[in-house]
Amino acid sequence: MSAASTHPVEVPLPGGRVLHAHDTGGPGPVVLWHGGTPNTGEPPAPLLEPGVRWIGVDRPGYADSPRRPGRNVASVVGDVVAVLDHLGVERCVSVGHSGGGSHALACAALLPGRVAAALSVSGLAPYDGTPGWFEGLGPAGRASLGAAVAGRAAKEEFQAAGSGGIDFTPEDWALLEGPWGWFGPVVQAATANGDGGLVDDDLAHVRPWGFDPAGTTVPVHLLHGEADRVVPVGHAHRLAALVPGSTLRVVPGASHLSVLTEAPGALAAVLAHLA
């Protein structure tokens, strides 16, 4: 882990809403980070290196960021633009993990003049209403996303009753015992005021995203673990077929978190588009 650290940024918006963001600062290429579900926008400490600036935004409902019920995936773009403008950042790459992958793709699709390329790691594909979208999901994910498909009331009730765990593999749990134990405090901070952000993320993922990934014109890289049970690898294949010219790397034996050990190489490939 590098010695780089982040500092908080607050961006006031018209109407009184305040965006909570995170910035490592300094010169160098900029990575716009989209945390998973549920995460804050805190950039991933195990990936921080000197010479690369990371910026992340807390999505509504996480930590102290007020909820925006009814938001879709594309809603992140307005918040991102406000933060980038506030920080004077003109060009970046968009990177997300898990539930953040779709949000990274939204920025790539809708901000082609500002986002040079995108990387989605362990990310979901758009919901198409077919049983195949659930194929390969573990029991916890199937129940959680199934509740989201049933609607807001069902999802809220599901969360209130307890989420029923998570479909990590032994390799995922082992990863959390090392530097990627970073996830623990980030998840705790994200859910300190409840599960509102998680609920709204899951609802957004099973409704129209607000943009068409097939219209993306910047390079898109996809990284996925073959053994992922939280977001099955079939989602990566769906995205690769949907996004023109996208590059997919499937890592044999890797799962939802353990695939992050391959993230530095994928990140370097995406940053090359800023050169």
TrEMBL record:
Transmembrane segments: none
Keywords, sorted A to Z: Hydrolase
Pfam families membership: Abhydrolase_6 (PF12697)
Domain of life (superkingdom): Bacteria
Region Disordered, residue ranges: 1-45
GO molecular function: hydrolase activity
Domain AB hydrolase-1: start-end pairs: 30-269
Gene3D superfamilies in UniProt: alpha/beta hydrolase (3.40.50.1820)
Protein name: Alpha/beta hydrolase fold
